[in-house]
Amino acid sequence: MRRSSPLMVWILTLAAAGAALAATPTTEVTLDNGLRVILIPHHANPMVASAVVVASGVTHEPAKAAGASHFLEHLLFNGTTSRSQKQLYDDVDRLGAYNNATTREDHTLFTMLAAKDLAEKALAIQADMLFDSTIPAENFDKERKIVLEELSRDRSDPDYDTESAFRAFAFAGTPIARPVLGTEATLTGIARADVLAYYKDRYVPGNMTLVVMGDFAPDDMLALVKRTFGRAPRGTSKPAPAAAWPARPGANLATAKAEGSPDRVLAAFPVDIDPYDPRATAISVLLSAASEGEDAPLRVALTSRGVPAEDATLSLERRVRPLSTVVLDARIDAASDPAKVLDAMAEAIRATRAGGAARARLARFVSQAASDGVLARDQILYFPMLRSDRIIGSPKGFLDAEPTLAAALPPSTWDAAAELLVKGLGFVRARATGAGRADGATRWEPPAETALPRPLPISSRERSATDCGTWSRAATTRTSSRSTSRSFHAPRPSRKGKTGSRTCCTGR
After folding, report:
1. Which whole-number Å values give the CA distances from 214 to 120, 189, 202, 377, in the listed order?
2. 103 forms bridges with which residues in the sheet?
3. Burial category of 267 from C-beta neighbours within 10 Å (exposed 0-12, middle 13-18, buried 19 and up)
4. Percentages helix, strand, coil for the chain, rounded to the nearest 5?
5. How far apart are CA 76 and CA 400, in angstroms?
6. Which of 143, 227, 379, 438 is deepest in the core (most CB within 10 A)?
7. Segments of the chain assigned to CATH 3.30.830.10
8. What is the pLDDT of residues 479-502, one digit of tens each?
9. Cβ distance 466 to 414 under 8 Å?
10. Which one-letter DSSP state was computed for residue 133?
11. To which H or E segment does residue 210 belong?
């Protein structure tokens, strides 16, 4: 009898767990007012979590009103047509609920967690905030001051200036070059009438997706959602303003002096796919295989070039199309040549192709992605939060398939993802900073490719991890949060999240 490897047993166990989760009936409907609703029963504990993803972020803001989405997020906790701010906070406290929000580049996420027998009251409060806020004039300047103080705190972070300057350079000509919080100039200049107009424009049901997870019967929960969220008028749902990447500048590698900060190379290039595209999942896993661990192709390529890098990562930042980017973040020593860091990045990216060193490590990271997905699906509050960047516009059934999607991708999807990565090398923009570096800019081009090794046959282990089925679109085809609960804490944001979203909890 053939003996199964421990890795194979683990992958099959995860697949079985994912199948069990997917077997729980998920209901997806669009209400008459345009609100998309996804109901995911989860009977592990008697709680219900509601997450509303609103298409409202810097990608939707006019440049003169940069920071309006995050400012508005604060203001929605200040009272509605039926509740003053105090009544809003008191009603949430009486439920013992958790009520929070986070603003990111292309969306704002509102979350509510309550006991299942209090779910209707909790969702009624959440719907009241989203559709019936008054943006009280007497609180407007107070909230402006709070946001400006938040921005001031961010500026005290040694990484803030480095990351902000990188964003402005790497994403120049696109809305994501602007910070989520806005700037002192835009926040000082924005008027209440501007925010009210933006609120009425973006906060309509057709710009939202509601995900409810927890201990409920789908038919009962759908009726509850119709009573609370279904009462909102349809409104007019407008798409985000068109965005496109401008041509790469001739001098695409900038250097700058940065006192008091470690030497660092940040680089990025665009990936023109939807955030829920199966290739996005493949890209995320391939980048992990290319950069994580002592034996990672990125680490090997840096070492071979004499670049000691204590911390070097490659990751995908998913956003509304066409604004997703691959980001390199490498902390290096003062003597290292940033061009060599980019050369190493190119070598690691090319290693994601079939036959490359990153592809040879794929099974391990497919397993890790499946494990993370199944574990996340078991957390009713965090699952939509961790997937909020890929919910809006996603095809029906996506959240069911997503936890174990990596294990279901065929080799052709991995190949297509790798080619997107390699193509992106021609659009790199990078910035190197350090105390001893001089201000300047030069041109970097990917080094000429040497003959690629002949593609290796896919091993039985890798095939089991990457050829379990398909998923496609049609059936194939720094964060700021406000909480009205003082007994629950949001997860600590990652370092890379500082420039793309804002997270902090505030009590009453």
Report:
1. 13, 43, 28, 11
2. 108, 502
3. buried
4. 45, 15, 40
5. 31
6. 143
7. 19-231, 253-461
8. 333 444 322 223 333 333 334 554
9. yes
10. B
11. strand 208-214
Six-digit token string for 196:
């009210």
Longest dimension (CA), the chain: 76
pTM for this model (two decimals)? 0.85
Residues in the chain: 508
* Structure token digits, residue 333: 């020593």
Three-class secondary structure of residue 270 per DSSP: strand
**How high does pLDDT run on average in the chain?**
86
Span 37-71, pLDDT tens digits: 999 999 998 999 999 999 999 999 988 889 999 99
Give 451's pLDDT tier (boundaries 50, 70, 90). low
Distance, in Å, from the CA atom of 261 to the CA atom of 257, rounded to the nearest integer, reads: 9
Strands (E), 19-134: 27-30, 36-41, 47-54, 98-104, 108-115
CB count, 10 Å around CB of 423?
Answer: 13
- The fold of the 253-461 domain, in CATH, is Cytochrome Bc1 Complex; Chain A, domain 1 (3.30.830)
Using alpha carbons, select from 304, 312, 305 the residue that is nearest to residue 331. Answer: 312
Residue 501: the pLDDT is: 55
On the 0-12 / 13-18 / 19+ scale of CB atoms within 10 A, 20 is: exposed
For residue 395, pLDDT over 90 is answered with yes
Q: Which two tokens stand for residue 43?
A: 């009977």
pLDDT for residue 226:
98
